[in-house]
Write a structure and sequence with these properties.
Blueprint lengths: L5 H13 L11 H26 L5 H23 L3 H25 L7 H24 L12 H21 L1 H7 L1 H24 L3 H4 L10
Keywords: Membrane, Transmembrane, Transmembrane helix
Protein name: Histidine kinase N-terminal 7TM region domain-containing protein
């Protein structure tokens, strides 16, 4: 385990911090919590296995694409389908997920090889998730979701805020990665480390978010309708 860095330990910590929350009495957010927990488990396992594969000189890009680019995006879309209760919105989320998968096949066969990190697919998935984050905050501002509650006590507020922050920054990073690398490799490494800090922050917040109703003394009520 000597090859693990602060980044890997941060992701693992987020996963382990999320576990005790399953034992919260009258857990009103159990399904969203379960999805986020599986995201944390998947990413933690991938980060450890992925770096081990890379250390052996094996190209791990195909696994990065399947796990980080596609599976994580689809799980987060499912998470959004759980917190949005309007049937029409759920259908649109499903359609956006299917279109993303279709784009993935097109991109893999005709544009970017699955054997290399697919920046186009990541950018597409990022835009889709950013769009649903914006809709979440639109619901808070204009549809009075959680109007009777302190937003700091709502787990989804923390998680969606970090998803928006991380994917907005990562979209800019991965979209311009090749150009930055050609201009200044040292700058690219610095931006990469900054992106990892944001990434770890997101996973840690995901691990802690479902304690928010206890910390801020909020009653766990039903999700917005």
């Amino acid at each position: 385990m000597e090859y693990l860095t602060w980044y890997h330990y941060g992701v693992l910590l987020g996963m382990f911090l999320s576990l005790p929350a399953f034992f919260i009495k009258n857990h009103a957010y159990r399904k969203p919590h379960l999805i986020i927990f599986w995201v944390l488990v998947m990413i933690a396992v991938w980060e450890i296995v992925g770096i081990n594969i890379a250390r052996r000189g094996i190209n791990n890009s195909i696994y990065a694409n399947l796990i980080f680019v596609y599976t994580e995006t689809l799980l987060l879309l499912y998470f959004f389908s759980l917190i949005f209760q309007e049937r029409k919105i759920k259908e649109i989320i499903l359609i956006s997920g299917l279109l993303f998968v279709a784009w993935g096949f097109i991109n893999s066969f005709f544009i970017e090889s699955i054997l290399f990190f697919q920046t186009y697919s990541f950018a597409m998935g990022s835009l889709v998730l950013i769009g649903w984050c914006i809709y979440f905050f639109y619901g808070i501002l204009y549809k009075d979701w959680y109007a009777e509650k302190n937003l700091l006590g709502v787990p989804m507020f923390w998680i969606v805020s970090m998803i928006l922050f991380f994917y907005s920054c990562s979209f800019l990073y991965f979209s311009s990665m090749r150009m930055i690398f050609e201009m200044d490799r040292e700058l690219m490494l610095q931006i990469r480390n900054l992106n990892r800090i944001i990434s770890v922050s997101m996973y840690l917040v995901m691990g802690l978010a479902f304690y928010a109703p206890l910390i801020f003394k909020e009653k766990q009520e039903s999700l917005p309708r």
